[in-house]
Design goal:
Number of helices: 7
Largest sheet: 5 strands, mixed, barrel
Shape: globular
Helix content: 25-40%
CATH architecture: Roll
Number of domains: 1
Radius of gyration: 18 Å
Structural class: alpha+beta
Strand order of the largest sheet: 3-5-4-6-7
CATH class: Alpha Beta
Strand content: 25-35%
Order of helices and strands: HEEHEHEEHEEEEEHHHE
CATH superfamily: Gamma-glutamyl cyclotransferase-like
């Protein structure tokens, strides 16, 4: 069934789909809050969600969620058919010297999505998903790998998990289009809590409006979104314009190793 224009527009404007306020474990379609990231707390949360704590023993890869991949609703959509295998800890964390900014592209569902950008002195509250190989394969299939995003290993990080633990490395999806540039600077996501970010911060509707003003001045915002979603060729042309003035992403700074 084809989505209505109202549904398409509402989805685009809703990005990044209500990120959570604290760490949680996704168990099937349920998200169970976490008070800390200890093995005991994780196992308790999985049991509370009706899952098997034994599934936590599978090897995991830490993946930073800049935008919608932090959302319990969005992850449940992506892993809905995994059922009992969808046991995914998602840990609220502080990432220093980074900001979460808008990518220089428009997603297939009409939003201006997120990517990461180094920003000395900044402190961003991000979420880190701990994924099995099967989870990673599924997530890769949803991220337009090699078209909009690449999958990278980031080293030299200052990443601290709320509830305990630190890491100097993690994986992340980074935009292949670069970071959206507006008036000579990046634009941070208002939905992401952060401190000392050197860029202006806008919500999704505001950044969509700025992009509309650049690409189709005078067009009603809802029409702009609907056209972007329903006309793939037009979307590609609009992305090409945004990419021309994009700021570079961490993929170009030598500390990011591309995996996919």
């Amino acid at each position: 069934m084809t989505a209505s224009k109202d549904a398409i527009v509402a989805r685009a404007k809703a990005y990044p789909f209500a990120p959570p306020a604290q760490s949680y474990v996704l168990v099937g379609h349920r998200s169970v809050p976490l008070t800390d990231s200890s093995e005991e707390a994780l196992a308790k949360a999985v049991r509370a969600g009706g899952g098997d704590p034994g599934r936590l023993a599978k090897p995991r890869t830490a993946v930073i969620a800049w935008g919608s991949n932090a959302s319990p609703t969005r992850l449940a959509e992506k892993f809905g058919d995994f059922r009992a295998d969808a046991v995914i800890p998602v840990l609220r964390s502080e990432l220093r010297d980074f900001a979460v900014v808008h990518s220089a592209h428009l997603s297939a569902y009409g939003s201006v999505p997120a990517t990461g950008r180094r920003a000395p002195g900044a402190r961003a509250k991000v979420f880190v998903a701990l994924l099995t190989d099967a989870h990673l394969d599924r997530l890769h299939s949803t991220e337009a790998i090699r078209r909009n995003y690449g999958f990278y290993r980031l080293d030299g990080l200052r990443l601290a998990f709320e509830g305990g633990g630190e890491s100097d490395a993690a994986h992340a999806y980074l935009s292949l289009h670069g970071c959206l540039d507006v008036d000579g600077d990046c634009v941070a996501l208002a939905a992401v809590e952060a401190e000392a970010v050197p860029f202006r911060t806008l919500d999704q509707i505001a950044v969509l409006s700025l992009v509309r003003d650049r690409l189709a001045p005078g067009s009603p915002l809802d029409d702009f979104i609907h056209e972007t979603v329903t006309d793939e060729g037009l979307r590609a042309r609009r992305i090409a314009v945004l990419r021309e003035s994009a700021s570079p992403s961490p993929a170009s700074d030598g500390l990011a190793t591309r995996i996919l």
